[in-house]
Amino acid sequence: MGRYRPPAVPGSKYITSAGKEKLQKEHDYLWQKKRPQVTRAVQEAAAQGDRSENAEYIYGKKQLREIDYRVRYLRKRLDNITVVDSIPEDRERVFFGAWVSLQDEAGAISEYRIVGPDEFDDADEYISMDAPLAKALFKRGLDDEIVVCLPDGEKRYRVKAIRYR
Q1: Rounded to an integer, what distance in angstroms lies between the CA atom of residue 87 and that of residue 149?
Q2: What are the tens digits of pLDDT across the range 84-105?
Q3: Burial class (CB within 10 angstroms; exposed 0-12, middle 13-18, buried 19+) of 147
Q4: SS3 at position 57
Q5: pLDDT for 131-147, tens place per residue?
Q6: For the domain that residue 48 is a member of, what is the CATH number?
Q7: Domain tally for the chain?
Q8: CA distances for 62 relative to 35, 41, 100, 138, angstroms
Q9: Is residue 53 part of a domain?
Q10: How far apart are CA 62 and CA 128, in angstroms?
């Protein structure tokens, strides 16, 4: 068995302004603060002599590789994303950035915000626009019923409220 991994499917290129700001802060922290600290630690560990058995040196080099990988990813992602900061004209339908209240078959109400794939882990109520639930919600209006195919079967929801900001 080889080590080949097919390329990951790129996420959608849309993001909220808060999401872009968060990615930019992470990039700046890694590049301007964390990487220089780790570089100094690696230099100090290298000055101690034999690098082959120097755990601090080996761990520091590994940490630098991880930081560089993440910085490259963030730079590429920040260059290719589109910030969606405007409210759509039709506020009665679900689009990117909307807060949507849903009622399931049991009558329980839950609220979600549709955001980009880079920011859905910021809060429990955020869902990625690439998620099956978000795809089923797009362009739906109040009191529309949606059906989402999940691994454990279909689930039905009714749109109870849509709001922006």
Answers
A1: 29
A2: 988 999 999 999 999 999 999 9
A3: exposed
A4: helix
A5: 999 999 999 999 999 99
A6: 1.10.287.180
A7: 2
A8: 12, 12, 43, 42
A9: yes
A10: 31
CA distance 19 to 14: 10
Q: Could you tell me the two tokens for 20?
A: 């872009």
Kind of pairing between the strands at 109-115 and 126-128: parallel
> Token match 């978000």: residue?
134
Q: Which domain holds residue 151?
A: 98-164
The owner of tokens 């690439």 is 130
d(CA 100, CA 126): 10
Q: Which among 58, 130, 143, 134 is positioned nearest to 98, based on CA atoms?
A: 134
Q: 116, 112, 132: which is closest to 124 by C-alpha? A: 112
AA identity, residue 44: E
* Token pair belonging to 21: 């700001």
Torsion over CA of 47, 48, 49 and 51, rounded to 10 degrees? -90
Structure tokens, 89: 């004209």
CB 111 within 8 Å of CB 102: yes
Which pTM does this prediction carry?
0.81
Burial of 100 (0-12, 13-18, 19+ CB in 10 A): buried
CB 159 within 8 A of CB 137: yes
